[in-house]
Amino acid sequence: MGGCPVFPKDNPWNTDVSSFPVNRNSAAYVGALSGLTLWPDFGSGQYGDYGIPFGTVPLDQPLVPIRFKVPSVASESDPGPYPIPPGARVEGGTDHHVLILRQGDCRLFELYDATKDADNGWSVYSAARFDLRSNALRHDGYTSADAAGLPMLPGLARVDEVDAGAINHALRIAIPRTQKAYIHPATHAASSSTDPALPPMGLRLRLKASFNVAALTGQARVIARALQVYGAFVADNSGGSKVFISGTPDPGWNDADLDQLKRIPADALEAVETGPVIPG
Hints:
This protein is α/β, with parallel strands linked by helices. The protein has helices at about 25-30, 70-75, 160-165, 220-230, 255-260; strands at about 40, 55, 65-70, 100, 105-110, 115, 120-125, 125-130, 170-175, 180, 205, 230-235, 245, 270, 280. The protein starts with about 25 loop residues before the first helix and ends with a strand.
């Protein structure tokens, strides 16, 4: 992407988990999603500005100030300046994410709740930088532009991948509620609940092998197959009543194809064993 790898091949985002053991708490975690269905939180734009956009900039992109709206969150974020262009596309809705990949050194810069200032700097709630050539995690307890402390760009469904026939990485999902804990590569919890039946941030969910992906067509089939092979990381609390799958906004999406994902019940998922639960 932009001449850069999206993390090394042995990174958790790029790991095939189709043969990983089922998490011993899978029934409880999936039970917390009972009655929900999957839901693509992105599309062609025909029905609104849905999806998380990203942009690329050259290595010599001018740096601009980053100002944090909440001082306590600034200590968990990465300080500026960042190479965010004045015309950077801001996610619609309420989260207002900005994602920028800098070519040349393959650094990813992500902002949450971003608004552009008069001097072309940005005011944000939180922000993080990632080296896409490294497997290094953020410090435990640190957030990012995502609630789980994870990068967002690696988990987005993209049209170019689907058109090529396969998504070869885990996806990002948001669910209604999580517990105050996380599993690496997540580094941050975003809940006050200590209910062990709720999924922790960073939980890897996988579409069961028994689910008949062949019953789906087009773009939905490619995404469902990725969920069987690579799964998805729980990365945020949605506050909604769906299991939201993240992707980029793109006129190349076929919304009718994507609607097939809405018929997949959450109980077609299972949790994968990837590491210990770390209290948040």
